[in-house]
Amino acid sequence: MNNKKAELLMMSVSLAWGSSYLLMKIGLDSISPFNLIALRFGIAFTCMAVIFLPRFRALTSSVLAKGTLMGILLFLLFAGLVYGVNHTTASTAGFLASTTVILVPILESIPPRYRKHRYNGVQSLALD
């Protein structure tokens, strides 16, 4: 991949991510927050189920349990996000959510001797 294509992809992701807060704010004017979350999750589930149907059929109970737990955590995150967008401006919500772009590299710069083992915590739920 050349630099121009990489920059174009980064720009399109930034545009989609940034506009999602505005679109959520517009959507919250016509439907309730939990219906908006259900719509987003439903569309995502349907798309992923169609794309990964063979893998979806081969799920084990362990993977399904871990996926359910991660889904619950993601739902709680989105519920907080939609609640925040509903009670503040879209630009403020976008700014606060975008601080993770700055915080992740800062936290990653902590020397390894001060970090816990890389598989501790919630990350271990995604592992088999």
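The above is record 1. Record 2 follows with the same two-line structure.
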Amino acid sequence: MPFEVHVIISTSMFFQKTKWSTSSGQLNEGMLVLLRDKALPPLVWALGRVVRTFPGPDGVTRVAEIKTRRGNVLRGFNNLCPLPFEDVKGREDVHA
């Protein structure tokens, strides 16, 4: 019996789940994002702009208000895909 307990404890150590300790990105007001929709393919996801963010009691922001062409919606960060954006102010090769 003690051998079985030892085997269970040692094998459970191999399968420990780890939590995220750091964030891989941050959303700021004014950023362009795609609103992920599980029912649609990525090429037809809605485009929106972050209006404001809502920090939780622990100080980590997990929800944002997004302005889309159909109105404002609240979405969790796990359903948002930030678009890469390069600031073009002051560049001479941009003709807008």
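The longest helix spans residues 2-14.
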